[in-house]
Amino acid sequence: MALPKLASAKYELTLPSNGGKVEFRPFLVKEEKLLLMAQSAGTERDQIIAIKDIINNCTFGKLDANNIPFFDLEYVFLQLRAKSVGEKSKLMITCPDDGETKVEVEVNLSEIECVTNVEHNEKIELDNGIGLIMEYPRIDIMMGSTGDDTEKAFDIVKNCIASIYDSENVTDRKDMDEKELDEFINSMTHDQFEKMQSFFTTMPRVKKEFKIKNPNTGVDNNVVLEGMASFF
């Protein structure tokens, strides 16, 4: 006799990047095992690969974790985790005022939002009608960058250029010569390159702000948690 099939609850979330609706289910034991094995391996790469696989599985194959902005991936995983393991996560936070006192706080993962800076713009004007259209970094871009921190940052910036335009033409990324693109970026002034970097510093990110009181000093501290790893 065949064993009965267990049914999973279904939920819906909204992708921060485009407002699209995605149906998902909580982790199953097989996904928890996948995540625990990745965590025991101890490398960030293994954990990210596990998170990608879990997102693909838990969204019924409708959401490809390789092709969504990284902040979407972080937000989706937090929502999956909230419905799977529990909405409350207890964290030990170091009080900023003295840099040493630790306070336990409880964060509701279901209340975490993806916040966008009002100054954020994917279109970057450089000079004399020349500009860029940027696209958000995906996990393949983040993981594909090699070298030291400077080289990785440069690669991520370069690989997030969707197109370059002037007063007459628009060149898509797929049509760009890699050497010419490197020369184009290297010819920028400091201010122009900072404009590119501002795309990343102002783009949406999972974020939670709250206050904690230092029990030793009595000082109320403003704390900001950003990024998926901050909530575990």
What key phrases describe this protein's structure?
four-stranded antiparallel sheet, alpha+beta, single chain, globular, three-stranded antiparallel sheet, 35% helix, 232 residues
CA-based gyration radius: 21 Å
On the 0-100 scale, what is the average pLDDT? 89
Supply the number of structural domains. 2
Secondary structure class reads alpha+beta
For the termini, the CA-CA separation is: 42 Å
Per DSSP E runs of 2 or more residues, the count of β-strands stands at 11
Q: Within the largest sheet, what's the order of strands?
A: 6-7-8-9
Instruction: Give unreliable regions as ranges.
Output: none
Portion of residues in beta strands equals 25-35%
Instruction: Note the overall shape.
Output: globular
Q: Main beta sheet, described?
A: 4 strands, antiparallel
Helix count? 7
Give helix % range: 25-40%
Sequence of secondary-structure elements: EEHHHEEEEEHHEEHHEE
Question: Could you provide a short overview of the structure?
Answer:
The chain has 232 residues and is of the alpha+beta class. It has helices at residues 29-41, 44-58, 70-84, 139-144, 149-159, 178-186, 190-201; strands at 11-14, 21-24, 88-94, 102-108, 113-115, 123-127, 130-134, 161-165, 170-172, 205-213, 220-226.
Verbal overview:
Helix content is 35%, strand content 25%. It has 232 residues and is of the alpha+beta class. The protein has two domains: 11-114 and 206-231, no CATH class; 123-201, no CATH class. The strands form four sheets. A four-stranded antiparallel beta sheet has the order 6-7-8-9. Helix 1 runs antiparallel to helix 2 (44-58) and helix 2 (44-58) crosses helix 3. The longest helix is centred in the N-terminal third of the chain and has 15 residues, at 44-58.
